[in-house]
Write a structure and sequence with these properties.
Elements lengths: L1 H7 L1 H4 L5 H21 L5 H8 L2 H13 L5 H18 L11 H21 L4 H19 L9 H20 L1
Length: 175
């Protein structure tokens, strides 16, 4: 994002009509990522991913008070069906339940919050502003946390990370 921020002019790119929501959105995204990745220490990736599919339920629930949307019976039925699938995977109340399953659920709540706030900010701010806030806040938060788990990456990891970052930025910027 740094080239895009510099090209667009940092003052212009970071000027927002809803800066509080932009910061909240960025914090929700970085928190969601941290929680999901942390869950992978304790859960198989398939279980963590399936559990994170609770996000649509959270988006639906949050869209009512925050966006003023009306949610019909069919949408609630689809959301409940998805929730049942999540409950099958998580198995709360059984011996198979792991407290670590709460991490991807919280990650899904963070992601859902960011999605709903994105809807609120999209009419007020340019997509580049939204992406820039996410990048700047993400860098700040992760820089503060880096000393607690830093592992020096080799060049393969750096190359892959750069490729993923460029692809994600290009994909997000073109949508």
């Amino acid at each position: 994002m740094l080239p895009a921020i510099l090209y667009g002019g940092p003052r212009r790119v970071l000027r927002s009509r809803r800066p509080g929501l932009q910061v909240f959105r960025a914090l929700a995204l970085v928190t969601s990522s941290i929680l999901f990745i942390s869950s992978l220490r304790f859960l198989p990736i398939a279980e963590a991913t399936a559990t994170s599919f609770a996000a649509p339920m959270f988006i639906t629930a949050l869209s009512i008070p925050l966006l003023g949307e009306k949610v019909g019976l069919r949408r609630w039925a689809a959301t409940v069906a998805g929730l049942i699938g999540v409950l099958v995977v998580v198995r709360p109340g059984t011996s198979g339940f792991q407290p670590a399953s709460i991490l991807p659920l919280l990650a899904a709540l963070g992601w859902a919050s960011a999605v709903v706030v994105t809807r609120q900010t999209s009419a007020a701010d340019d997509p580049l502003t939204t992406l820039s806030y996410s990048a700047v806040i993400g860098v700040l938060v992760l820089t503060v946390l880096a000393p607690f788990g830093w592992v020096l990456p080799d060049w393969h990891v750096l190359a892959l990370g750069t490729l993923i970052g460029c692809a994600a930025t290009t994909a997000t910027g073109s949508s």
